[in-house]
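User: My advisor asked me to double-check a structure prediction for Trk system potassium uptake protein TrkA before group meeting. I don't want to rely on an old file, so could you generate it fresh from this sequence?
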Amino acid sequence: MRVAIAGAGAVGRSIAGELLENGHEVLLVDKAPTAISVERVPLAEWLLADACEITSLDEAALQRCNVVIAATGDDKVNLVVSLLAKTEYGVPRVVARVNNPKNEWLFNESWGVDVAVSTPRLMSALVEEAVSVGDLVRLMRFSQGDANLVELTLPPESALAGTRVGDVDWPDDTSLVTIIRGNRVLTPSREDALEAGDELLFVAAPAREEQLEDLLSATREA
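Assistant: Sure, here is a fresh prediction for Trk system potassium uptake protein TrkA from the sequence you gave:
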């Protein structure tokens, strides 16, 4: 898979390193000469260019990329890169970094963004996830398809503890994708029984989140 990353700062280089370790082809693009640190990610391609300009993106051969990641520290730049990648080059998957949570509402399919990653929001969500039991925590928003990745730790008093996944009347537009039980990551099947303390990860439509939280947090009748 070929991936272009706009922004060769600490975030962009870190992403590039992970992708290279997983066997992908990575191009880092940045307009600041000081950001071009080939020795830090020697296996990546590097391009000194402004990712907001069509001529630069032509040089980067963006049409050959499977994924573009807009990872600069400037939300305006990330939006422009996302829009150009999607509309001018038809890149199948565009991921954009959101630096200011107040701008998160802009990072949607209208700007070519498939997945928006808000670092401040993600960090606060992870803090909530670490201390919350029985409360639904939104981890990530998927712009395409209008869905969120959400997590809930099943409380001991939940009426669903001991219930098989296939016997639960899940809300529409929700999908249980993973059960984290202790140090195990489980792909849920219909026969798996839910246990108190399970971390449940769902992809769910925003309109179904409250219904899902009510279902999972409902207590047993006395």
